[in-house]
Structure formats: structure tokens, C-alpha cells
Amino acid sequence: MRAYMARRCGADFPLERKISRFLTMSLRVFRVPEDERARIIAHVATLDVRALARRVMGALFESLSMEFAL
Description:
The protein is mostly helical. It is 74% helix and 0% strand. The protein is built from four helices and no strands.
């Protein structure tokens, strides 16, 4: 899983497709039924992953700056 996610996204492999394939692969391993997989992937597709990542990273950097203030 790590190797798959480590591959960079680009024009030929956008983030949305990468996430969809990763979820499909992961959920199949656990034998999640196809209809439930489709619902999960559709829900994740509605999320603004980039905005969520920016918010999480902003909170992380804010936390680190408080702990390691110069």
C-alpha cells in the first residue's frame, strides 16, 4: 500500500483516480460487498481532499511552531 501511495500524482494519474483505485483495492482485500464499496468511494469522491490536507498540515505546522518556538 505504501509503495502505491508513494507514486506521485500527475496529469496521467490524478489524485482522485489514485484514491479511488486505492480504496477499491483495499476494500476488496477485506471482501467489502461491491455496493458498499461503491457507496464508500462515491462519498470520498465528494470530499475536498486537498482542502482537508491543507487544514491538517496547517494544524500540524501550527502545533510544531508552538512546541519548537525559537
